[in-house]
């Protein structure tokens, strides 16, 4: 798998997710087997570039290459300037967001709302590609609703504009994240495109990843929400695709150490006040499917210091030893089924 001059170690990617794929999380996913990860969405509005939030989103210090930044906006020149700004800050790949279905984004005619205006899409893609000397990729959806699917048309426009890779989420803008992703459109785009195509949407297990690759013919899969709290899903998918065998759940002690590493990096990145608050969602995702996870999450959300969080998380994973040396997701699943 290759994007421009960058040869990736595998075809298992992590999706850009607002409030999730910050630098510590991207680093962890790459450490745990992801061949590629894209930053959170950076706004193209130049008035926002210098804000603390935007600066954090485009911070790549020490990150494994290639360093990819996703940009979002509706003005071709702003997007071109934003791409140049981020390349100057170390971005090696620019990804354009035309897939976000969130109302706040779409109401500004950004994200997947752009799919309604193919003329503007073409102007944006040409402007960004011509503005930088790094590969530019596009993430988009199948259309803005079920009656108006235009992924094939967008893909043709993108390829003509010089886009290096397409990532297609198998839902429309109107679908949001509801229902099941469909892969026929991804297959059609892959069959028509002369550039790499990545399949995205509802890829939650190694077996599903293989099925989606077989159904679509895509060059890679992109994992989104399934990586929240389980970043090791990247290595599980990579291993299954390569060998056909399923890796067992990770050891309790390994995850205990990974959690400590992730949290300390998270606190260093955000600082004490913001770090303890933004870490809560990550901790909640890590424990949600484990025995006692929900009860622990509720108590943990009341803690007000990073040190208290570290101690509580360490004690929680120490308690998981009573269920076995590996994480026991099935016990939590069984308990929910009988509740």
Describe this entry's structure for a reader.
This protein has 339 residues and is α/β, with parallel strands linked by helices. Helices cover 46% and strands 15% of the residues. The chain has helices at 23-31, 52-57, 76-88, 103-106, 118-131, 151-161, 184-192, 206-216, 233-243, 252-270, 272-287, 293-300, 306-319, 329-338, and strands at 2-3, 6-7, 12-14, 36-43, 68-72, 93-98, 136-141, 143-145, 148-149, 165-169, 197-200, 220-223. Strands 3-4-5-6-7-10-11-12 form an eight-stranded parallel β-barrel, surrounded by seven helices. The protein has a two-stranded antiparallel ribbon with strand order 1-2. The model is unreliable at 332-339 (pLDDT under 50).
Encode the helix/strand succession as letters.
EEEHEHEHEHHEEEHEHEHEHHHHHH
Measure the end-to-end span.
45 Å
Overall pLDDT: 91
Helix content: 40-55%
Structural class based on helices, strands and sheet pairing: alpha/beta
Unreliable spans are: 332-339
What fraction of the residues are assigned to beta strands by DSSP?
5-15%
Helix count, per DSSP?
14
Number of strands: 12
Widest β-sheet, arrangement of strands = 3-4-5-6-7-10-11-12
